[in-house]
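Hey,
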Amino acid sequence: MPTLLGATYVEGYVLTRNVPFAIEHAWCSTRAGDAIDPSIPDGGALAYLGVAVAPDYQRAQQILRGSTAVFTSDDVFCQYNEDALSDGVPSDALVIVPTP
């Protein structure tokens, strides 16, 4: 879906106005580096910090894990992606997204 919008899937953390600590989160980033995040109201996010994932790696990991999450836990179907977090990811698994 992100690629249909010309965006990139990102997984990491978000800091919001109504939670006093960063929380695990996923969003999309535009080519200009702006966040597309339908789950947080406009103006509700103070900062995003994450890893932009290449579409092929994203799909492969989501299928392999049976989850929408690539690296993090989704609290229902799977735990953290220990292989990726401890052994690293292939060089073509990540993409560079500019910051606004």
